[in-house]
Amino acid sequence: MRRSDNTGAKVDLHNYGPFVTDGVALEGAGRTDRVRAADPSFAPNRLTTSSDVALVHDYLNQRGGAERVVAEIASMFPNAPLYTSIYRPQSTWDAFLHHEVRTSPLQLLPVDRHFRRLFPLYPPAFRSFGQLDAEVVISSSSGWAHAVRTTPSSFHAVYCYSPARWLYTDQRAQSGRAGDLAARTLAPYRQWDQAKARKADLYIAISDWVRRRIARVYGIAAPVVYPPVDVSRFTPRPRGERLLVVSRLLDYKRVDVIVRAASEAGIGLDVIGSGPELGRLKALAGPHVVFHGSADDVAVTELIEDCRALCIAGCEDFGITPVEAQAAGKPVVAFAAGGALETVTDGVSGTFFDSYRPEVVVDAIRRCDDLEADPQQLAALAERFSAATFRRQLVSTIDAARRGR
Hints:
- This protein folds into 2 domains: 2-228 and 387-403, Rossmann fold (3-Layer(aba) Sandwich); 231-384, Glycogen Phosphorylase B (Rossmann fold, 3-Layer(aba) Sandwich).
- α8 links the parallel β13 and β14 (289-293).
- By secondary structure, the chain is α/β, with parallel strands linked by helices.
- 34% of the residues lie in helices and 16% in strands.
- It has 14 helices and 17 strands.
């Protein structure tokens, strides 16, 4: 089967097996989308003045936290091409319209929402770019971009959100034939993934929680550089009357825990987000719970600035919303796991709960109400996760590793 892109280049999709050996390259594989010249207003930093840089990301078809990070990195290196498997401008942040994006042959396939089903095709997709020969290659990865090939003279840094979850889910949770089949199916992908990870010159973790996972899965010691959060968009304000959840409505986010606790206690709760759990959550909700669906940044900012506290029940690798809440002068009520342990200080900027029982969650909410932190003090705590801090730490971490190479 052969298909053509709009440049007339031919792509043989039969070559897209799950693995391609180092001696195989796909012809005509890269497609470049140039939208406009790089914005000259960005001031160069040490890395851009001394190095030729290329950027890589798994896929650009979501409006998620990882894509916000990539947008920030791209603004740091406005002349660096950004390589990715697929790019859907309508499905991700507009910031990428201002950057040169180069896509793999997967760009030709009519997929967007169901892109994860293409997982056997991602290894050859990133091979299709050939060897990137930039002085510094920065891959933003949670599963695929870290596998991009670079020349021996390139320095390859991987900014890792997490080793691929679908590869390293605990197989002990499955039993019998299903567990055995999953183990046999995933084994070659794990071997491939680990081999590619160990070829990088530097791994950088988004949190200490992820740093430990990288050490366990890859045996790699990774420094931590926290992701950038746009804290400047928030104005610290006094606490309001209603709790707030900002989350995709997926089962593992455990939004049901907050909905149930607030409903049983008769506490007002606003929920921003959409997803397959919406129907079930509405069935659990009491009369004081309001579901706002998806909301733009303006609406989210207003609700965070006006809330009583932000609530998080899932285990996040980092978690941007707790930092945003503090930037708006609001404390956080969070499940005691994951990145929240690094962004929230119990008894100072928020309170933790260690059980999903409604009475335990309500107790954490009551303790949060008793906190005396001034909104300006909470906003000051959020500054350590600012975009400016991220830029300095990313550059200094890469530069230090290059000097020690």
